[in-house]
Specification:
Layout (H helix, E strand, L loop, with lengths): L2 E3 L18 H10 L4 E4 L1 H15 L5 H7 L16 E4 L3 E5 H14 L8 E4 L10 H11 L1 H14 L2 E3 L6 H8 L6 E4 L13 E4 L2 H8 L4 E4 L2 E8 L8 H12 L7 E6 L8 H9 L8 E3 L4 H9 L3 H9 L14 E6 L6 E3 L7 E3 H11 L5 E7 L6 H16 L7 E5 L3 H9 L2 H7 L2 E3 L22 E5 L15 E5 L2 H10 L11 E2 L5 E2 L21 E2 L33 E9 L6 H4 L12 H4 L18 E2 L6 E2 L1 H10 L4 E4 L12 H8 L2 E6 L4 H9 L3 E5 L13 E5 L10 E6 L5 E7 L4 H9 L2 H9 L1
Parallel strand pairs: 4-5, 4-7, 5-6, 7-8, 10-11, 10-13, 11-12, 16-17, 16-19, 17-18, 19-20, 24-27, 27-28, 28-29
Antiparallel strand pairs: 1-2, 3-9, 6-23, 14-15, 21-22, 24-30, 25-26, 29-32, 30-31, 31-32
Helix pairs in contact: 4-6, 4-8, 9-10, 11-12, 14-16, 14-17, 21-22, 23-24
InterPro entries: Acnase/IPM_dHydase_lsu_aba_1/3, Acoase/IPM_deHydtase_lsu_aba, Aconitase/3IPM_dehydase_swvl, Aconitase/IPM_isomerase, Aconitase_4Fe-4S_BS, Aconitase_4Fe-4S_dom, Aconitase_dom2, Aconitase_mito-like
Protein name: Aconitate hydratase, mitochondrial
GO molecular function: 4 iron, 4 sulfur cluster binding; aconitate hydratase activity; metal ion binding
């Protein structure tokens, strides 16, 4: 493995590897800053694996190929074919946010293993609801979520997992500040884990069951990614920001254009982007379906490593720099070119993050489409845009308004990415500027970005517009109001629009009116890439696991409505799946937010039966264009999707879901796979899947299948019964035949494809990947 951390273990390095000894001064700084110290970094092992693969392939490699293939379990024999074969990998590290960590740790407990095999951390960032401001919201969250926090803290201590307490910050910012570095491979139970690509790392979002595999030391499977190259030329300047790069790319590739691929940025324009700016771009790569995104190692990353106390890692990265950039002459599966000199500020939305508009045009488009022009709330921060540079550039815009006697016309909220960012922007005066212009600084947490927002200024169903520096803007995601038109853009554009109070404002050309009646234009934002002084670490919020936690206990109250120990799913019966009822035929976009909503449902993420009461309640039923209203074909009555599914399960009726394109896009939440399995589902049949969700379904023993002919979706009726034949000869690459029985007595036979490999077929036969793990380890 590339990287080893101090876990009370002496681990052997590969032949000829160089140890990175951490100085006493650095250890002292680490202790003060709550970092988990890196004991040594093994780039030599990475180089050895890359050399083996390069000799086999006999061609130049992209950067992403070097890092991914450098983590192969068997570089000598692994079949490598981009877009086709499955790779067996050994990631260096696992990170879990608190909403997904509950189920991941419950699954790890079920595995019976005594301790995690790789360094792992839990980050408390999802369960803090934004109401009145940071301190009060944090205190309230600690009280309400005490049971869950205690569970995660004690489970972490017992099984060797570090625990970042509530208030520490958003998982991805913590990873960037502490754990990501060039060449590392990290998986995280959150779809925006690719944020770490801004520091030259391969960081991939996964479901909890994948995290369990890695924590158990089992080789982790990933379909060999294709590689999309984005060549950047020119230089960022003026109002154009790193966020505009990914907003532009999203408009080009759409929400599914990156599926099955790593997006690799390269070219002379890269050097004009800060390390945290590169992280912003990689973070939002999740919105195009990309496996992850990455930038090549450069001086901006070196500076960031030094500023965050990791100068010795930077020195080693300099020595092995040829490993951390693409080879000259490497080939990409697709190339996009963007000239940063010509790139203009963008704003994407509403309702989907790939609906791209130049800021100069969005006002006119809004008028044409009937979108509300008034900006009700501007929200900056989130894991995508909460760096020191982001806060500084936004503050520079706000300061101009203050100097002219203005405050924000819209409500304005600020979410720091970490305790370190919060403390530093408070010390350096940015927080005061935000407060003076009318803003509220929220807790160091996800907050409104994931729907943790107790919004009270508009009624549910009232059309309104909000602008954010977040990454997603699906229907009702931020505030549970399906009539909210949410747009994503850069923090500086959000700030300008919050001051102007309207979408119909272009800060590059339009004027504001000062308190004295004078007309003035905002000058382009400025902000230091990193603080002139060192970062202020703020409060200590990290709990390191003890060297031996075997004697510790993790209690889960059987009467709890928030936590529930897991029972194994049933094994495959050995027979075809016959006469399964169509539970719902979903119309249009169906993200994991539609399948398993967040917001108020986050509190049940550790209780499978309770969280299953939100299954598919946001999906549109093709029969009646309604949400959470489907026909129960046993009773003839209409009911909620979870209620009908429970009734079918209680009566021994298996069921299927039929869906449209890119089914399951968005969050990595595996609850969107666990819930259908728990409530009696057997298969999900769609036109196409998002990567993470398809894998999550496989992990839980479901059959994710796609129509060989996408138009066959139209042949399915809401009251059909579907049989899937050929399961006794289930083999990779061999399609199934679906027998579709219609209520009028007619029958259709449809071909269904799957992407299972041999190992994944074993998951299905065992009932789940966790069941199969137990079979292999018992």
């Amino acid at each position: 493995m590339l990287m080893f951390f101090c876990y009370g273990l002496q681990l052997a390095l590969g032949h000829g590897a160089r140890r990175l000894h951490v100085s006493a001064a650095y250890r002292a700084k680490v202790a003060m800053s709550r970092f988990e110290p890196t004991s040594f970094v093994n780039y030599e092992k990475l180089r050895s694996n890359v050399d083996i693969v390069q000799k086999r392939l006999n061609r130049p490699l992209t950067l992403s190929e070097k890092i991914v293939y450098g983590h192969l379990n068997d570089p000598h024999n692994q079949e490598i074919d981009r877009g086709r074969t499955y790779l067996r990998l050994h990631p260096d590290r696992v990170a879990m946010q608190d909403a997904t960590a509950q189920m991941a740790m419950l699954q790890f407990i079920s595995s019976g293993l005594p301790k995690v095999a790789v360094p792992s951390t839990i980050h408390c960032d999802h369960l803090i609801e934004a109401q009145t401001g940071g301190p009060k919201d944090l205190a309230r969250a600690k009280e309400i979520n005490q049971e869950v926090y205690n569970f995660l803290s004690s489970a972490g201590a017992k099984y060797g997992v570090g625990f970042w307490k509530p208030g520490s910050g958003i998982i991805h910012q913590i990873i960037l500040e502490n754990y990501a570095y060039p060449g590392v491979m990290l998986i995280g139970t959150d779809s925006h884990t690719p944020n770490g690509g801004g520091l030259g790392a391969i960081c991939i979002g996964v479901g909890g069951a994948d995290a369990v595999d890695v924590m158990a030391g089992i080789p982790w499977e990933l379909k060999c990614p294709k590689v999309i190259g984005v060549k950047l030329t020119g230089t960022l300047s003026g109002w154009t920001s790193p966020k505009d790069v990914i907003l532009k790319v999203a408009g080009i590739l759409t929400v599914k254009g990156g599926t099955g691929a790593i997006v690799e940025y390269h070219g002379p324009g890269v050097d004009s982007i800060s390390c945290t700016g590169m992280a912003t771009i990689c973070n939002m790569g999740a919105e195009i379906g990309a496996t992850t995104s990455v930038f090549p190692y450069n001086h901006r990353m070196r500076t960031y490593l030094h500023k965050t106390g990791r100068g010795e890692i930077a020195a080693l990265a300099d020595e092995y720099a040829n490993l951390l950039v693409p080879d000259e002459g490497c080939e990409y599966d697709q190339v996009i070119e963007i000239n940063l000199d010509e790139l203009k500020p963008h704003i994407n939305g509403p309702f989907t993050p790939d609906y791209a508009h130049p800021v100069s045009q969005v006002g006119a488009t809004a008028e044409e489409k009937g979108w509300p022009l008034e900006v009700k709330v501007g929200l900056i921060g989130s894991c995508t845009n909460s760096s020191y540079e982001d806060m500084g550039r936004a503050a520079s815009v706000a300061k101009q308004a203050l100097d002219k006697g203005l405050k924000c016309k819209a409500q304005f909220t600020v979410t720091p990415g970490s305790e370190q960012i919060r403390a530093t922007i408070e010390r350096d005066g940015y927080s005061k500027i935000f407060g003076d212009v009318g803003g509220i600084v929220l807790a160091n947490a996800c907050g409104p970005c994931i729907g943790q927002w107790d919004r009270r200024d508009v009624k549910k169903g009232e059309k309104n517009t909000i602008v954010t520096s977040f990454n997603r803007n699906f229907t009702a995601r931020n505030d549970a109001n399906p009539a909210t038109h949410a747009f994503v853009t850069s923090p500086e554009i959000v700030t300008a629009l919050a001051i102007a109070g309207t979408l119909n404002f272009n800060p590059e050309t339009d004027y504001l009116t000062a308190s004295n009646g004078e007309k003035f234009k905002l000058v382009p934002p400025t902000g230091d890439e990193l603080p002139t002084k060192d970062f202020d670490p703020g409060q200590d919020t990290y709990q390191h696991p003890p060297s031996d936690g075997s004697s510790l206990k993790v209690d889960v109250n059987s009467q709890s409505n928030r936590l529930q120990l897991l029972e194994p799913f049933d094994k495959w019966s050995g027979n075809d799946l016959v006469d399964m009822q169509v539970l719902i035929k979903v119309k249009g976009k169906c993200t994991t937010d539609h399948i398993s909503a967040a917001g108020p449902w986050l509190k049940f993420r550790g209780h499978l039966d309770n969280i299953s009461n939100n299954m598919l309640i946001g999906a549109v039923n093709s029969e009646n264009d309604a949400v959470n209203s489907i026909k129960n074909h046993l009773t003839g009555e209409y009911g909620g999707v979870p209620d009908v599914a429970r009734h079918y399960k209680a009566n021994g009726v298996s069921w299927v879901v039929v869906g449209d394109d890119n089914y399951g896009e968005g969050s990595s939440r595996e609850h969107a796979a666990l819930e259908p399995r728990h409530l009696g589902g057997r298969a999900i049949i769609v036109k196409s899947f998002a990567r993470i969700h398809e894998t999550n379904l496989k992990k839980q023993g479901l059959l994710p299948l796609t129509f060989s002919n996408p138009s066959d979706y139209d042949k399915i009726r809401p009251d059909d019964k579907i049989s899937i034949t050929g399961l006794q000869t289930f083999t990779p690459g061999k399609p199934f035949i679906a027998i579709v029985k219609h209520s009028d007595g007619s029958v259709d036979e449809l071909e269904l494809n799957h992407s299972f490999n041999e190992t994944q077929i074993e998951w299905f036969q065992a009932g789940s990947a966790l069941n199969r793990m137990k079979e292999l380890t018992s």
